[in-house]
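Fill in residues.
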């Protein structure tokens, strides 16, 4: 069932409860990265342009059902006003009065919904109180859609509901990348530990034609193949699991790509002395910290044949040079193919976004998800409560 969007709603004169993501980094009372605020602007502006009155619902931090002054959303108001180019009224209490007093053109931000114990409990009573403030519910927070909370799930059952622009954009991009991708489809999955991405890997091998495994995760797969990885980060106790995933990939016709050559060093430090060796020749006193140039060339070859790419996680310890080389090179190749119209590229996850920004190519990918946990759970093939609720499930 398709999810209704703002275009399917008569917003004129209506109070629109709009769930957004304002969980932004703050230092010394100032928002240091307004990306999430900027990405919700199209939804709020479209509501205003259609004659609606947006009432913004959001969380900030993890106050766990208590009023924690340093987690008040009041701190984001200046950045919100700057992004929207208009005044934003902040309601710390008396939500009902603030909502009733709204006029067309007004924007209202309610206090951190997680100050209420009923939010994370997905409490029907708390959702009912929120619903009484508005006429329509719009969810524009895909990044919180994996949480069955009152403002993301229960509320959608109480009012005419729709997806905001960012939510619709995320769902469309992910459907294109995983739901019905143009083939060949490639997934790049990196990161430190296999244990954090077991469900993800198990799902992806049934969805894509090539699965590139990088980062510390690759070490576990190499070790499972009988390769001595020296002092590298490695979950040796998951060797059987790695072999099971490899077998599942083979059964599904998915080619698993592990590093052919690797960059090793005896210490993980900026400018540490490093060398490139074949994966099977790692010195016993060294650590694998990046994929080598032959591995990158192999990845580039696979990307050159692909039509769809989904990327989560770096190929090496990208935070420190020179161990960012493989991630940057592969990301730049994916960006080049995307610019040329040869590849649909979708990426997500905190480390992934940081890596793409470091490579200077985040704007060149077809879509970069603003979500972390929700992006991963979607890739794992799980139903997201916030999305299911919009479908009326």
């Amino acid at each position: 069932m398709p999810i209704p969007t703002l275009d399917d709603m008569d917003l004129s004169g209506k109070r629109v409860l709009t769930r957004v993501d304002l969980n932004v980094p703050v230092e010394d009372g100032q928002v240091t990265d307004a990306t999430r605020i900027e990405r919700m602007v199209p939804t709020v502006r479209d509501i205003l342009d259609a004659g609606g009155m947006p009432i913004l619902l959001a969380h900030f931090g993890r106050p766990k059902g208590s009023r924690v002054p340093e987690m008040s959303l009041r701190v984001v108001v200046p950045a919100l006003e700057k992004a929207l180019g208009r005044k934003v009224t902040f309601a710390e209490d008396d939500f009902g009065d603030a909502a009733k007093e709204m006029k067309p053109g007004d924007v209202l931000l309610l206090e951190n919904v997680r100050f209420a114990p009923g939010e994370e409990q997905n409490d029907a009573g708390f959702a009912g109180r929120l619903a009484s403030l508005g006429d329509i519910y719009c969810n524009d927070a895909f990044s919180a859609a994996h949480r069955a909370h009152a403002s993301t799930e229960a509320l959608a059952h109480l009012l005419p509901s729709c997806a905001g622009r960012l939510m619709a954009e995320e769902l469309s991009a992910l459907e294109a990348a995983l739901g019905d991708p143009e083939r060949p489809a490639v997934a790049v999955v990196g990161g430190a530990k296999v244990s954090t991405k077991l469900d993800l890997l198990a799902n992806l091998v049934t969805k894509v034609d090539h699965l590139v495994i990088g980062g510390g995760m690759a070490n576990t797969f190499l070790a499972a193949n009988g390769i001595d990885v020296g002092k590298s980060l490695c979950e040796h106790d998951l060797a059987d699991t790695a072999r099971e995933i490899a077998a599942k990939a083979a059964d599904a016709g998915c080619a698993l790509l592990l590093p052919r050559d690797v960059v090793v060093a005896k210490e993980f430090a900026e400018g540490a002395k490093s060398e490139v060796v074949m994966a099977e020749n790692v010195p016993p006193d060294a650590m694998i910290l990046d994929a080598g140039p032959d591995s990158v060339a192999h990845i580039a070859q696979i990307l050159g044949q692909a039509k769809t790419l989904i990327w989560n996680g770096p190929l090496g310890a990208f935070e420190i040079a020179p161990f960012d080389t493989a991630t940057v090179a592969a990301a730049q190749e994916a960006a080049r193919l995307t610019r040329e119209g040869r590849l649909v590229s979708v990426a997500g996850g905190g480390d992934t976004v940081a890596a793409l920004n470091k490579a200077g190519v985040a704007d060149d990918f077809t879509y970069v998800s603003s979500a972390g946990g929700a992006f991963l759970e979607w890739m794992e093939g799980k139903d997201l409560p916030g999305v299911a609720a919009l479908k009326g499930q």
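The longest strand covers residues 15-19.
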